[in-house]
């Protein structure tokens, strides 16, 4: 009898245990289901992952130059600034892969957050370098050595052309990555010029055939089409070379720094810069987010352009007339290597 | 002293000759990468004015280009754009054992044929394109022209790669067939 009671008691305990385990399992299951449901609902609201952790520990690229070790600078932003020879409505209607237009103005901007400097490297449109060729129907058909500005001609005249130009300039700069581009169409020059209230320059050359007001020696604030004449026209101005046009483009670019001041001399606000960007955005192709671009422009206000280099940064080399009768510019390899090292690399200190 | 003066004069002369030359050159464009390098008659004489690149695209040229671009956006294999007999002609021109798989249309140029008589025999034309072909590349030139009914017809012809350029031989029969305005497309892989 006692044995029977004992067994019945044990069975009761077992049953209680099973019920408790089942309830715990049920609660856990419901909780898990709720958690999964919450995750699914809030997937879009979760903070963005802060990059691949592994990439933070990737070794910084290094190279040896003249017996010393150099490593790629951290905290630099490289932007390719292009001026193309097409109007914005032509770009929008382009459907082929060979009418993207040439990049007549090529400038590499290097913003160094650590050194707080902005370095501008102008590249001659006629620089001979390897560019990617797209076939008539858009297939890649290889690379060839030719004038670097032609890289933009392949592609859609918009993002694709800019990417091809970035690739070509990157190859020319010994493989330096150029993640961002900003391309302005021909009609964007006068739009930008007028948006900032005009750029003041002293004319060294005679533009009177294009605009009677534009006589040599005159200091004037360029308005509308005058800005386009100043930076674009080549053949009938001065000696007529691209080199002399590049000197004018550089003068204009440097004067653009004045865009932080309004016409009445007051400092512009970040909002003013945003408004200027909005005004020229229909003439601009870029892969930079609006906010990022405004911040980078704003940095330029505080960062000193390398004053001593602003006048001097020029890739040394030689001009030739090619067999096809077109101008070719061959960069001096040693000078180019030195420029790339100085701009993008830091010397590794020996301990 | 005399040497120095001579060096300065030579440098000045060089500068004065180079700058006007550079100033006179037009800016190169992507269109300038396509050109007829040479048009040679059977007797070896050069007649570069006989087959030239169209300066202005004709309606026929534009229709062909638009049609090809439209087809390419919806289809992967450009070879399938052509009729069965054209495809058979392309296959015949491929090296033995090679298939049409992987053939792309890498180049297309709109040409026009100028004044010529029937005594020149086969005309050999050398074309430079933006694409620099290798001697080992398989190329099949295709001539697109308007047939007697006004429809677009395609004719695969023999071609070879020389110094990165494509060389095409035009027989008198072909020249009669293609008429004044025609396009040359290059299939390659």
Describe the model:
Helices cover 39% and strands 23% of the residues of chain A. With 351 residues, chain A is an alpha+beta fold. In chain A, strands 11-8-3-4-5-12 form a six-stranded mixed β-sheet, sandwiched between helices. A three-stranded antiparallel β-sheet of chain A has the order 1-2-15. Chain A is elongated. The model of chain B has no long low-confidence stretch (mean pLDDT 89). Chain B has helices at 2-24, 59-74, 84-93, 172-178, and strands at residues 35-40, 51-53, 104-113, 123-128, 139-146, 152-156, 159-162, 165-170, 181-188. Chain B is α+β, with helices and mostly antiparallel strands. In chain B, strand 5 (139-146) and strand 6 form a beta hairpin. Chains A and B meet through strand 7 of A and helix 1, helix 2 and strand 3 of B.
Which short descriptors sum up this protein?
heterodimer, A: 351 residues, alpha+beta, six-stranded mixed β-sheet, B: 189 residues, five-stranded antiparallel β-sheet
State the separation between the terminal residues of chain B, measured CA to CA: 63 Å
Mean pLDDT of chain B, as a whole number?
Answer: 89
Helix content of chain B: 25-40%
- Order of helices and strands of chain B, N to C? HEEHHEEEEEEHE
Contiguous low-pLDDT stretches of chain A (5 residues minimum) are 40-51
Shape of chain B: globular
State the shape of chain A. Answer: elongated
Number of strands of chain A: 15
| SSE run of chain A | HHEEEHEEEEHEHEEHHHEHEHEEHE
What is the helix tally of chain A? Answer: 11
- Strand sequence of the main sheet of chain B, in spatial order? 2-3-9-5-6
Radius of gyration of chain B: 21 Å
Strand order of the largest sheet of chain A: 11-8-3-4-5-12
- How many strands of chain B? 9
Kindly, what is the distance between the CA atoms of the first and last residues of chain A, rounded to a whole number of angstroms? 88 Å
Radius of gyration of chain A: 30 Å
Main sheet record of chain B: 5 strands, antiparallel
Q: Determine the structural class of chain B based on helices, strands and strand pairing.
A: alpha+beta
Mean pLDDT metric of chain A = 84
**Low-pLDDT regions of chain B:** none
**DSSP helix fraction of chain A:** 25-40%
């Amino acid at each position: 009898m006692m044995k029977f009671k004992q067994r019945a008691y044990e069975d009761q305990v077992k049953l209680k245990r099973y019920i408790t385990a089942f309830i715990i399992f049920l609660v856990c299951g419901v909780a898990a289901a709720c958690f999964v449901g919450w995750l699914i609902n809030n997937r879009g609201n979760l903070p963005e992952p802060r990059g691949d952790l592994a990439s933070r520990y990737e070794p910084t690229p290094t190279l040896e130059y003249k017996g010393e070790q150099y490593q790629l600078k951290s905290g630099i932003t490289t932007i390719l600034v292009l001026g193309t020879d097409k109007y914005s409505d032509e770009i929008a209607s382009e459907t082929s892969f060979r009418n993207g237009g040439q990049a007549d103005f090529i400038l590499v901007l290097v913003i160094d957050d650590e050194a707080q400097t902005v370095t501008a490297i102008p590249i001659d449109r006629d620089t001979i370098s390897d560019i990617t060729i797209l076939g008539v129907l858009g297939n890649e058909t290889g690379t060839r050595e030719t004038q670097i500005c032609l890289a933009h001609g392949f592609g859609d005249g918009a993002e694709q052309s800019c990417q091809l130009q970035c690739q070509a300039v990157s190859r020319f700069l010994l493989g330096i990555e150029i993640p961002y581009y900003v391309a302005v169409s021909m009609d964007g020059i006068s739009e930008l010029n007028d948006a900032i209230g005009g750029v003041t320059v002293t004319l060294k050359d005679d533009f009177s055939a294009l605009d009677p007001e534009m006589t040599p020696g005159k200091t004037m604030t360029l308005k509308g089409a005058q800005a386009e004449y100043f930076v674009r026209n080549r053949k009938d101005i001065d000696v007529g070379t691209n080199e002399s046009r590049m000197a004018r483009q550089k003068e204009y670019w440097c004067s653009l720094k004045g865009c932080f001041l309004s016409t009445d001399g007051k400092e512009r606000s970040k909002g003013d810069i945003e408004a200027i960007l909005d005004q020229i955005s229909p003439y601009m192709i870029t892969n930079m987010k609006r906010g990022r671009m405004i911040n980078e422009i704003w940095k330029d206000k505080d960062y000193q352009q390398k004053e001593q280099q602003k006048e001097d940064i020029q890739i040394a080399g030689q001009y030739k007339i090619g067999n096809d009768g077109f101008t070719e510019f061959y960069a001096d390899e040693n000078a180019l290597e030195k420029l790339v090292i100085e701009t993008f690399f830091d010397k590794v200190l020996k301990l | 002293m005399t040497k120095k003066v001579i060096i300065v004069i030579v440098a000045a002369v060089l500068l004065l000759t180079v700058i006007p030359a550079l100033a006179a050159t037009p800016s190169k464009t992507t269109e300038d990468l396509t050109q007829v390098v040479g048009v040679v008659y059977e007797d070896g004489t050069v007649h570069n004015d006989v087959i030239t690149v169209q300066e202005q695209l004709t309606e026929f040229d534009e229709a062909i280009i638009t049609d090809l671009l439209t087809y390419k956006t919806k289809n992967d294999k450009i070879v399938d754009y052509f009729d069965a007999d054209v495809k058979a002609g392309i296959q015949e021109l491929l090296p033995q054992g090679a298939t049409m798989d992987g053939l792309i249309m890498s180049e297309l140029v709109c040409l026009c044929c100028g004044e010529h008589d029937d005594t020149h025999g086969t005309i050999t034309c050398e074309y430079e394109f933006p694409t620099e072909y290798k001697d080992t590349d398989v190329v099949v030139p295709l001539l697109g022209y308007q047939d007697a009914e006004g429809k677009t017809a395609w004719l695969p012809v023999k071609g070879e790669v020389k110094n990165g350029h494509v060389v095409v031989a035009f027989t008198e029969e072909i020249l009669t067939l293609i008429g004044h305005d025609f396009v040359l497309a290059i299939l390659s892989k």
